[in-house]
Design brief:
Blueprint lengths: L1 E9 L2 H31 L7 H6 L1 H7 L9 H23 L17 E4 L6 E3 L9 E4 L3 E6 L7 E10 L2 E9 L12 E6 L3 E5 L4 E3 L3 H4 L1 H12 L11 H35 L2 E5 L3 H4 L6 E2 L7 E2 L3 H14 L1 H15 L2 E5 L24 E3 L6 E3 H19 L3
Parallel strand pairs: 8-11, 11-14
Antiparallel strand pairs: 1-5, 1-7, 2-6, 3-4, 4-5, 6-7, 8-9, 9-10, 12-13, 15-16
Length: about 400
Amino acid sequence: MIRAYKFLMRPTGGQTIALGEMLRDHCSLYNGALQERRDAYRHASKTSVSYGQQSAQLKDIRAFDSERQGRWSFSSQQATLRRLDKAFAAFFRRVKAGDTPGYPRFRAVNWFDTVDFPKDGDGCRWDSTPHDPVTRVRFQGVGHVKVNQHRPVVGKVKTVSVKREGRRWYVVLTAEQAQPEPLPKTGSVVGVDLGIANFLADSGGRFVPNPRHGRKATAKLEAAQQALARFPHVRRTKRTGNHRRAVERVATVHRKVRRQRLDHAHKTALDLVRQHDFIAHEDLRVRNMSRAPASKPDPDQTGSFLPNGAAAKAGLNRSINDAGWGVFLTILTSKAESAGREVIAVDPRNTSRTCPTCGHVCAENRLTQEKFHCLSCGHTAHADTVGALNVLRAGLVRRKAQPA
């Protein structure tokens, strides 16, 4: 199996400048390749340029611009061109599917934050000086950079990436390792119901509170955004140091919220995986659930629109995104696979409206956000617990129906 590791790097001042120049030159290569594809399609009778054609030009590009493009790894530049090729492949795939995708865009230097090295030892080397007690990673054109390795890397390192997040630099490794030993069996099964009032409710009646990291950081984020809004819109070459610091403050608040959300998702998923052999959850389409409502044109007045509940839906969308259901489910699936646990997603329709005792389905069974009262048999319980019980039963049915 392939596992990723992310470590904080401690570059010197000169290495920080070199890493920034590496991102800048790879961004220039990406934009130049994109411009070539656009020009070929517009001015050469809709001719398409492939990755192979652009990769074959790298040797001449490096010879022509030896001071910039010639400094960096050839394989990392190929990875940048392959990244553009994947963007075009995804664009045309969505076009064929009938979607309305955006055309691949040019990248500003501040929006190009990753450089990939497809193979350890080709332009980069992880821990290239094993006799040194300090872990280091070597990049062509940068040198040996100290790494804060907070846990051991298991397996053989396959790929290495450099990632910039604000003023911090990270190295991301992918390592190939054997399938880990599964956790001991517990004999326990559980269904989980994700929500907003409570982040998670399971079929055993346990609740995990919703930390609401985004809401707690609202005041700090508003203050940082207001400070940024005081600066007039100017060109990048005329932006002041105060403007850059205001941008960094906004990014820092967002970064902290994202890391808090990831930490909570990891801990909650690990707790479920350690305690249960089988986990059933709702198959949520988070992107569809957080979509803005369609506008309602007023048939009596041209150019006017009827109320569509957009303000209330915007608040709900913020709460859904703040909960981070999609990230949690991805982490849960990954941890369950490593631990030898089984995870099944079930259809969420009517799970909180169906009585777990008699099976009666009715929207009026759920009186409020928390209260469930069956109109047929009189069963009462917490609505989220009822949903989790129904999710577990549906998961067990689907489990038995699956071929061995």
